[in-house]
Amino acid sequence: MTAKAAFYDVDGTLVRTNIVHTYAYYAMNRGSLSGIAGRTLAAAAQVPLYAALDLVNRKWFNEYFYRAYAGLSEDRLVVLGQEMLEDVLKPAVFPKAQDLIDEARRAGCRIVFITGALDFTVAPLAELLGADDVIANKMQFVGGIATGKVIPPIIEGANKAHAIRDYCVKHALALDQSFAYSDSFSDYAMLAMVGRPTAVNPDVRLRSIARAYHWPVLDLR
Amino acid sequence: MRPLKTLKRLYDETNQVVVTEKGSPPRVIFSGEDFLLEDLPLGTRVVFARSPLQGVPNPKAAIRWALNHPEGMEPLHALLRPGMKVTIALDDISLPLPPMVTPDARQTVLEIVLELLADSGVDDVHLIVATALHRRMTDAEMKRMVGDKIFTAFHPDRYYNHDAEDPDGIVELERTAHGEVVALNRRAAESDLLIYVNINLVPMDGGHKSVGTGLSNYASLRAHHNPKTIRDSESYMEPSTSALHRSTDRIGRVIDQHLKVFHIETVLNNRMFDGPTGFLGKREEDFTEMDRLKFQALRYTLSKLPRVAKRKMMMSIPAPYDIIAVNAGATEACHEKTLEACWRQYSVPVQGQSDIVIWGVPYISPYNVNSILNPLLVQVMGLGYLFNLNRGIPLVKKGGVIILCHPAYDEFDPEHHPSYIEFFNRLLPETRDAMVLEHKYEQEFATNPSYVHLYRKGNAYHGAHPFYMWYWGENGRQHVGKVIVAGAENNHVPELLGWERTDTLAEAIDLARGATGRSASITLVKSAPILQTDVRL
After folding, report:
1. Which of the 8 DSSP states describes residue B204?
2. Rg, chain B, Cα only
3. Which among A206, A203, A179, A200 has a CA at the least distance from the CA of A14?
């Protein structure tokens, strides 16, 4: 049988949270009252800016958004990542997400999460749901402290498609036999890259594209 | 106004075959959600369904009698003991067509059986809709099938759809002597008694096919749902000539060795239409002025509605079927009696084959209740069901022409038929060869996790199902020389199916005569109501 993979976007596809929820958790667990207040208020104040950036360009949004992590320590982020799984992510996993992953596993697919979120936030979830690999953004740390910069290339949009292609080449997987799942039109490139794209809980634009191209549409909610 | 002598001659006609003469009325022919009204060439033979047989006067009494006098088994009450585990499997929404007026025959049977089980101290009872790889029925459809009371008492924990892809929900029994996989729903297999409540609309249904397909999985279905088996079947509507049934019989016998199965088979008459659409069950010779008025009113209404609304309207008209027979007991003995009743209603003797056979394809098939008759389903209706509705000898001659009346629109239901869309748009442009399709692509579709998920959690047909639809037309495809779809609204659908198209039925007949000669014999089969031709050579 040809080796193949199933690539899953995470936020909005497998879980109902997004990277803002994730950051909010870190902000709320800053460690001191002033830290919590400072980061939470700063994040809240920038919501309109985040929304505008996300609308214009997901890459700009990610770059700008991840600056908020500057100054947080690596070990703290990793520990909080584990706690966040229990407190935030686990309850937010869509009810049918595990079934979909299990079905891909039974079909002989390698399970890969591909997300614009940071790797330390996704790793525990990947372990919980049984993913073999995670392709995610990586925060730059200097002396164990986050700089707020993401090591390029930022995993989003077209870069997700490139990452999938590279992953398939590296692991000798058939791209045309592989599956990709996403909820957002911003992942159109990633969906178009594989032979078996599927829209999951799609937004209006992706639903329209999926219907036009005869892609299956799933609802995991 | 028709001359009196013509009227007299036509009213004297009582058999199911009428030869078109000068003065014969135009024929009302299904064409999807619309109707054609067509004058046929002189000499065209028109085959009608038999009139609906009288239903049993008291269905509940007939059911009770069958339960107490089963074929080849003890009465149902004698098989029951307190505390035992019982599973009741039911045919799904693919039967009958159109869905019958409530109460559905399954509800009537269940009300009696569940009462008997309760009286016998049997509390561990599950109801499973035997969907095989068909789509899951919706809650509303399940409720309609069994009635409010049973639905409320059993759904969702003890009344649910079979899941052929549940890794923990299927058990494999020993293989048949031919190596066929025998897989069965775990709950059914682990029950002390399995009761199967069937509706037998056509002779393909029932018998060993009920449990052996309805509660099985893809691995087991592959044994007979394949192009070779269909090619080896003269007609899969006639079990004695069907390789499909020989395989399901082998599988069913293994199941019967492991499990006590009590069948309750009901046979319906062919009263598909009544009231405002009752004229559709009549011969045009028998139309009253009121019938003609109703037809024109229906046709006018349909002409003013968009297709979605037409479909909705037609789907919302249930059929007032009557139960004409109830049989119960061991699989084969019970089913033999069921088939006899089926043929009494459906079998129509016809002398000789035809060069050209015309069928109107209606808006509904077993696979699109509350949905769209997409191009693959038009194909399965034409080359599958309608072609195979014979007793072993096809109505159309080898190398002859089939004319199907249908718009052949390029419409699919993404919720019910997602894998059909890919099959039609990706595979058919590459090949129409069923063997190649099976070899290259069936497994891929069957294991596609998106399709598996849509089958298990949504209301979609399984990823392998469009292949079965294509195979189902295989013996028809091998037999006929040409298929023409009259009234096709586009070129690409007929082309992808390997067919020709014309705008009108008259043009289709001309085209068919071009292939078969000017003296070609022509038969129009007026189906629905359903009929099965018994061709004598």
Report:
1. T
2. 23
3. A200
Contact B165 A107 (CB under 8 A): no
Closest Cβ–Cβ partner in B414, B450, B457 for A196: B450
B453 and A96 within 8 Å at the Cβ level: the answer is: yes
Q: Token pair 């549940």 is at which residue? A: B166
Residues of B in contact with A217 (CB under 8 A): 414, 418
Beta carbons within 10 angstroms of residue B181's beta carbon = 18
Superfamily of the domain at B59-268: LarA, N-terminal domain (3.40.50.11440)
- Give the residue carrying structure tokens 């697919």: A109
With residues binned 3-state (H G I as helix, E B as strand, rest as coil), the percentages for chain B, rounded to 5, are: 40, 20, 40
Find, in chain B, the residue whose alpha carbon is nearest to that of A211.
B414
The type of residue at B255 is I
Selected residues 48-67 of chain A with any CB under 8 Å from a CB in chain B? none
d(CA A87, CA A85): 6
pTM: 0.92
Q: Fill in the DSSP letter of residue B111.
A: H
Question: Diameter of chain B by CA atoms?
Answer: 72
A214 and B CB contact within 8 Å: yes
Q: Buried b vs exposed e over A17-31: b needs ≥16 C-beta within 10 Å? A: bbbbbbbbbbbebbe
Does A103 contact B165 at a Cβ distance shorter than 8 Å? Answer: yes
What are the CA-CA distances from residue B106 to residues A62, B110, B200, B216, B481 (Å)? 58, 6, 11, 21, 41
Cβ pair B447:A108 closer than 8 A: yes
**Prior bond to B156 cis, omega within 30?**
yes
DSSP letter string, A191-213: HHHSSEEEEES--HHHHHHHHHT
Domains and CATH numbers, chain A: 4-218 (3.40.50.1000)
Q: Which residue(s) pair with B348 in the sheet?
A: B533
Q: Where are the domains of chain B?
A: 4-51+347-536, 59-268
Q: Is the CB of B527 inside 8 Å of chain A's CB atoms?
A: no
In order of A62, A157, B204, B387, the CA distances from B532 in angstroms are 66, 58, 11, 10
B457 touches chain A (CB under 8 A): yes
pLDDT in tens, chain B (537 residues): 555 555 554 444 458 999 999 999 999 999 999 999 999 999 999 999 999 999 999 999 999 999 999 999 999 999 999 999 999 999 999 999 999 999 999 999 999 999 999 999 999 999 999 999 999 999 999 999 999 999 999 999 999 999 999 999 999 999 999 999 999 999 999 999 999 999 998 899 999 999 999 999 999 999 999 999 999 999 999 999 999 999 999 999 999 999 999 999 999 999 999 888 999 999 999 999 999 999 999 999 999 999 999 999 999 999 999 999 999 999 999 999 999 999 999 999 999 999 999 999 999 999 999 999 999 999 999 999 999 999 999 999 999 999 999 999 999 999 999 999 999 999 999 999 999 999 999 999 999 999 999 999 999 999 999 999 999 999 999 999 999 999 999 999 999 999 999 999 999 999 999 999 989 999 999 988 999 999 999
In this prediction the ipTM stands at: 0.86
Contact A100 B453 (CB under 8 A): yes
* Run of H or E residues at A35: helix A33-45
Homologous superfamily, domain B4-51+347-536: LarA, C-terminal domain (3.90.226.30)
The 10 Å Cβ neighbour count of residue B453 is: 27
Enter the tokens of residue B295: 């037809």
Cα separation, B367 vs B470, in Å, equals 13
In contact, A96 and B449? CB cutoff 8 Å: no
